[in-house]
Every structure is written in C-alpha cells, then in structure tokens.
C-alpha cells in the first residue's frame, strides 16, 4: 500500500523539559522521537506542564496527527505502520519475534528500573522527583500530585514484585539487561544488521537518557558505560538522526533537551 501523506503539523506532547520531565518519561519521549526520525516523519515537540492529563491514556508521550491522538511507542509504531511506514517490514517472522522479546526486556527491566529509582529510592524521590514532578503547580497541589503518583507507581512495583528490591538489586537488573543488549548488538551498527528498527529507537531513548541525565549518583549511567558498544550505538544514532536536524526549529533536538550531549 502507498504511504499516506504525513501532516506537516504533526506534534508530540511531553512535559516541560528543563524543570519538570523525569528520566522515564524523557526516555519514552526520546524513543518515539528517534523512531519517527528513523521513519523520516517530521514531528514538532510540544512541551506542556499538563501533558500527562492531556493524554487520553494518561501515558506519555502522545502524538497528535491529523485528528488522531496516539500514546506510547508500541501503539505509535502500529499507527505509523497503518499509514504505510514501517522499519521492521524487512525482518522475517523469527527476527520479528526476537525484536519483540528484546523490546519487552527493555520495558520490563530498564523502564521499571527508571520508575523504581524515581519513586522508590528515597534520596532520588526527595532531591529530584518531588521537586520536578510538582514544579509547575503551587503548594500544596505540587505535593499532592507527587504523592498520588508515587502511591500509584509503588502499588505497581508491589504488583510486579519489585517493591522489596534494594537499589543494588535493581542496578544488577539494569546491568543484566545491558549485557544482553550488548551481546545482541555485537559489532553491528544496529540490532538487526544495517538498518534501524523500533528496537533501536527504544534502546536509544532509554540508554541516551540514562547517560545524559544528572541523578544523585552516577550508579545508573555507570552500568551503561561498562558496555562500549552501547555508548557508541547511542552516539551513532544521536549523530545520524538528531544533529543538524533542527535547522528550521521544528524538531527539538534530543541532545539539547538532555543536560549534555554524549560528544562533549
């Protein structure tokens, strides 16, 4: 099927970059931005304090394309595919199943670890999460919204058996996930040979954000830095898809939204 035209005013919504967005949402937003860049579909990044409440599913990021609103990478990949754009069409069934398995690994391990760190590690909660999450709102609303979100995430952690984990155990999970990704990537430029897929976008979103976000300690980013092929992979995608893409000011460069680029 011929690809449908992509509207010029397509927009991606996320929270405020400098003062509000948290690591996990930044990673998820960057994964979607990377995916759309890889598909060569232009998107304007719109930052809103109430982005979470604008999203029909409550999940971020979401894209507004034509008269449709779609949130999170998985559904966005399906939505874009229905419009005739796919990065994984060239894979056979076995490779597609493998790609899905690695995407689940990233979501089950890295994303969950980011959420754990943000909402279950007391030092991070007090120093980073509460001040940032509630920043657009006056007291006491800022605290109320933060505690509500914290309660919601901690309840989810209990349900999946993460509530009793120590920070050391969570960091060990991150290391195992990075090890599996590093072994799968090997010396290839992308996870499946020469062309990126949505797995590459997802891995980049999380690893790049972990590498460029200042937390209370460097323990999380150090886990990623142990695997030189993963850091090189992040640099490669940053250079190919984000640097110099901002000439007209429409696409907000991910490296600029992060505290620092990997190249400095």
TrEMBL record:
What is known about what this protein does?
A: Involved in transport of proteins into the mitochondrion.
Subcellular location field:
Mitochondrion outer membrane
Provide the GO biological process annotations. Answer: mitochondrion organization; protein transport
**A GO cellular-component term linked to this record:** SAM complex
* Source organism of the structure: Corythaeola cristata
> Where does the Mitochondrial outer membrane transport complex Sam37/metaxin N-terminal domain lie?
29-149
Q: Where is the Metaxin glutathione S-transferase domain?
A: 175-237
Write down what this protein is called. Answer: Metaxin-2
Q: Which InterPro entries match?
A: Glutathione-S-Trfase_C_sf, Glutathione_S-Trfase, Metaxin_GST, Mito_Protein_Transport_Metaxin, Sam37/metaxin_N
Pfam families assigned to the protein according to its UniProt record, in alphabetical order: GST_C_6, Tom37
Keywords assigned by UniProt, alphabetized: Acetylation, Membrane, Mitochondrion, Mitochondrion outer membrane, Protein transport, Transport
Q: Which residues form a coiled coil?
A: none
**Protein family according to the UniProt entry:** Belongs to the metaxin family.
* Subunit field text: Interacts with MTX1/metaxin-1. Associates with the mitochondrial contact site and cristae organizing system (MICOS) complex, composed of at least MICOS10/MIC10, CHCHD3/MIC19, CHCHD6/MIC25, APOOL/MIC27, IMMT/MIC60, APOO/MIC23/MIC26 and QIL1/MIC13. This complex was also known under the names MINOS or MitOS complex. The MICOS complex associates with mitochondrial outer membrane proteins SAMM50, MTX1 and MTX2 (together described as components of the mitochondrial outer membrane sorting assembly machinery (SAM) complex) and DNAJC11, mitochondrial inner membrane protein TMEM11 and with HSPA9.
């Amino acid at each position: 099927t011929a690809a449908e035209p992509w509207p010029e005013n397509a927009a991606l919504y996320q929270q405020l970059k400098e003062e509000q967005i948290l690591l996990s949402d930044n990673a998820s937003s960057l994964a979607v931005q990377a995916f759309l860049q890889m598909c060569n579909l232009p998107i304007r990044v719109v930052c809103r304090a109430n982005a979470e409440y604008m999203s029909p599913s409550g999940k971020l990021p979401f894209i507004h394309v034509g008269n449709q609103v779609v949130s999170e990478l998985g559904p966005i990949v399906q939505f874009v595919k229905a419009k005739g754009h796919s990065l994984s069409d060239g894979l056979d069934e076995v490779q597609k199943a493998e790609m899905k398995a690695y995407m689940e690994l990233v979501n089950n391990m890295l994303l969950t670890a980011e959420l754990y760190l943000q909402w279950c590690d007391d030092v991070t909660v007090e120093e980073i999460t509460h001040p940032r999450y509630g920043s657009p709102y006056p007291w006491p609303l800022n605290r109320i919204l933060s505690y509500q979100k914290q309660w919601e995430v901690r309840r989810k952690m209990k349900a999946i058996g993460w509530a009793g984990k120590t920070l050391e155990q969570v960091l060990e999970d991150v290391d195992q996930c990075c090890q599996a990704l590093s072994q799968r990537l090997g010396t290839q430029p992308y996870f499946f040979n020469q062309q990126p897929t949505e797995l590459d976008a997802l891995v980049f979103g999380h690893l790049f954000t972990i590498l460029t976000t200042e937390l209370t300690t460097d323990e999380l980013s150090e886990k990623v830095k142990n695997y030189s092929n993963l850091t090189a992979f992040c640099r490669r995608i940053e250079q190919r898809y984000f640097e110099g893409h901002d000439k007209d000011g429409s696409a907000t460069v991910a490296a600029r939204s992060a505290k620092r680029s990997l190249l400095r």
